[in-house]
Design brief:
Radius of gyration: 20 Å
Largest sheet: 9 strands, mixed
Strand order of the largest sheet: 16-15-14-13-7-12-11-8-17
Helix content: 25-40%
Order of helices and strands: EHEHEHEHEHEHEHHEEEEEEEEEHHE
Structural class: alpha/beta
Number of domains: 2
Number of strands: 17
Distance between the termini: 10 Å
Number of helices: 10
Bound molecules: nicotinamide-adenine-dinucleotide
Strand content: 15-25%
CATH class of the largest domain: Alpha Beta
Length: 364
């Protein structure tokens, strides 16, 4: 089988792991790279043995079947719209867009054009979240009643060379890291019915450390967001995302059920451990993982999209899931502004489980 051509737009920090993993997908080949920064385009193209082209040339190339959109969040909608208009499948980094209307317009355009929209995160396809899902589906903790999801950190100030976009609307801890937690929770518990939120912005600027130590950047989005998520199936989950926390000893995600507690691993990773402690037990048990995808497999969602197209089935990291997650995040900030619960207008089916143990080869 001739591999399909993949284009990559946005050759920044995250593009390397995608390019590396693309080499593991026998049915796909990275053929062209475009970045608005010519030096980054050239460097990435040389590193990955692809052509360095303009965005326009990449979109006009008939050899390109699907495009990775790895630009910053604030550019996602416009770049994805251009990819769809060119008649190519798009797999975007998260969030799908910065606003719900932009995301809805994207999905409508894709449906009209007959192309697929996939969106990160795909960490929920990893062994950790898939094992946690199986534990819930198999009834290890009975009926899920409630949960806690905590992403407490101090932001990308110490390590990211372009930290500005993390502090603009469309990012912050909720829109930047929240998608990992919300996508995992929807995978585990199903769709969200309504959300509530409270947020604060801790200061108008940040002083960077790391590669740009001393640089001052503006902050224009909440840096600490506390939310309640009421799931359609009943569970009530408390979600806190923060770029204001220097240290914590709290868990990432715990689900509390009628028969026990499930400790879910970091949803920003693909691995475990997944631990369960059932009612009346006095210790935790670590569950065996359902498959072997524990390393950084970013791109798994794109591989699944390509396989799904070939097999005529829905792909798992799909646009409707990303839209539901985006509506929840936008709803949390809207709830903060209005002081009321926000009922979501979208719903979504849980993506099909992934397992046991397909290889990159099985996914094309
Ligand atoms: N850095 C990480 O660790 C990480 C991890 C997971 C997800 N992500 C996500 O990946 C995306 C990119 O993040 P990053 O850290 O690589 O950012 P980055 O700033 O390092 O890279 C983004 C690149 O996109 C280019 N770009 C911007 N607008 C463009 C346009 N309209 N056309 C062509 N090129 C354009 C920029 O020149 C830059 O090279 C974001 O959505 C981010 O949330 C990043």
């Amino acid at each position: 089988m001739t591999p399909v051509g993949i284009g990559l737009i946005g050759a920044g920090m995250i593009h390397r792991i995608y390019a590396e993993n693309l080499r593991r997908i026998p049915g796909a080949r990275l053929v062209a790279v475009a970045d608005q920064d010519p030096a980054r385009t050239e460097a990435a193209a040389a590193a990955w043995e692809a052509r360095a082209v303009s965005v326009e040339a990449l979109l006009a190339d008939p050899a390109i079947h699907a495009v990775l959109n790895l630009t910053p969040p604030q550019a996602h909608a416009a770049v994805s719209q251009a990819i769809i208009a060119a008649g190519k499948h798009v797999y975007s980094e998260k969030p799908l867009a910065v606003t719900v209307p932009e995301a809805e317009a994207l999905l409508a355009a894709a449906a009209a054009r007959g192309v697929r929209v996939g969106c990160a995160p795909d960490t929920f396809l990893g062994a950790g979240i898939q094992t946690a899902r199986k534990a819930l589906d198999d009834g290890w903790i009975g009926t899920p009643l409630a949960g806690l999801a905590l992403m407490l950190g101090h932001g990308p100030d110490t390590w990211h060379p372009h930290a500005e976009f993390f502090y603009a609307p469309g990012a912050g801890p909720l829109f930047d890291v929240g998608p990992y937690y919300l996508t995992a929770l929807v995978t585990l518990l199903g769709p969200i019915r309504r959300v509530w939120g409270a947020a604060r912005q801790s200061g108008p600027r940040r002083i960077l450390a790391g590669p740009r130590a001393g640089d001052v950047i503006p902050v224009a989005t909440p840096t600490h967001v506390a939310a309640q998520l009421e799931f359609a199936a009943g569970p009530l989950v408390t979600l806190v995302t923060s770029f204001d926390v220097w240290a914590t000893e709290t868990p990432r995600i715990e689900i509390y059920g009628s028969e026990g507690t499930l400790a879910v691993p970091d949803p920003n990773t693909f691995g475990g451990p997944v631990r369960v402690r059932r009612a009346q037990q006095d210790s935790w048990a670590t569950l065996p993982l359902v498959h072997a995808w524990t390393e950084n497999c970013r791109g798994l969602g794109l591989a699944d999209l390509l396989a799904a197209e070939a097999q005529g089935r829905p792909h798992r990291a799909h646009g409707a899931l990303a839209l539901h997650v985006l509506e929840a995040m936008a709803g949390i900030l809207h709830a903060h502004e209005t002081g009321t619960w926000v009922t979501l207008t979208t719903t979504v089916e849980r993506p099909a489980p992934l397992g046991p143990a397909p290889t990159w080869r099985d996914l094309t």
